[in-house]
């Protein structure tokens, strides 16, 4: 079995572990933070040790390519987050915020 058989290459910026919605980036992030494979399994219990080791081996054999993949993914996520921050809140969100502010003010007035 080839290492690539463990993964689904949905597109150049979306590599998943076969049979899971978990991306290889999830395992690699834990690895880069110093987690042991056993600790990764605790954090990602739907995986097994074979898939964790396959992901780590794939990363170590393709480090430059996967580091670039991880950087692109992080930039994409940050761009989506910034777009979300820039959006005008919906009317529902505005009403909830107004109610929350009103309740906080009422609590302050009681004190």
Would you give an account of this structure?
The chain is mainly alpha-helical and 111 residues long. Helix content is 66%, strand content 8%. It has a single domain (3-110), classed as Arc Repressor Mutant, subunit A (Orthogonal Bundle). It has helices spanning 24-32, 37-43, 49-61, 63-86, 91-110; strands spanning 7-11, 14-17. A two-stranded antiparallel ribbon has the order 1-2. Helix 1 packs across helix 3. The longest helix has 24 residues, at 63-86.
Describe this protein with a few key phrases.
elongated; 111 residues; mainly alpha; 66% helix; two-stranded antiparallel sheet; 8% strand; Arc Repressor Mutant, subunit A
β content, as a range?
5-15%
- Let me know the CATH homologous superfamily: Winged helix-like DNA-binding domain superfamily/Winged helix DNA-binding domain
- What's the CATH C level? Mainly Alpha
Main-sheet strand order equals 1-2
Mean pLDDT score, rounded? 93
> Could you name the ranges where pLDDT drops below 50 across 5 or more consecutive residues?
none
What is the distance, rounded to the nearest whole angstrom, between the alpha carbons of the first and last residues?
69 Å
- What is the CATH topology descriptor? Arc Repressor Mutant, subunit A
Number of helices: 5
Instruction: Report the CATH architecture.
Output: Orthogonal Bundle
Tell me the structural class. Answer: mainly alpha
Helix content: 55-70%
Our count of domains comes out at: 1
User: C-alpha Rg, in Å?
Assistant: 21 Å
Shape: elongated
> Element order, helices and strands?
EEHHHHH
């Amino acid at each position: 079995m080839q290492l690539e058989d463990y993964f689904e290459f949905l597109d150049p910026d979306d590599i998943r572990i076969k049979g899971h919605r978990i991306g290889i980036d999830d395992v690699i992030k834990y690895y880069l933070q110093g987690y042991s494979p056993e600790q990764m399994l605790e954090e990602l219990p739907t995986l097994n040790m074979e898939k964790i080791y396959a992901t780590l081996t794939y990363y170590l054999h393709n480090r430059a390519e996967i580091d670039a993949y991880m950087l692109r993914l992080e930039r994409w996520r940050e761009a989506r987050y910034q777009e979300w921050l820039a959006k005008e809140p919906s009317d529902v969100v505005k009403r909830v915020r107004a109610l929350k502010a009103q309740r906080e003010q009422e609590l302050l007035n009681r004190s």
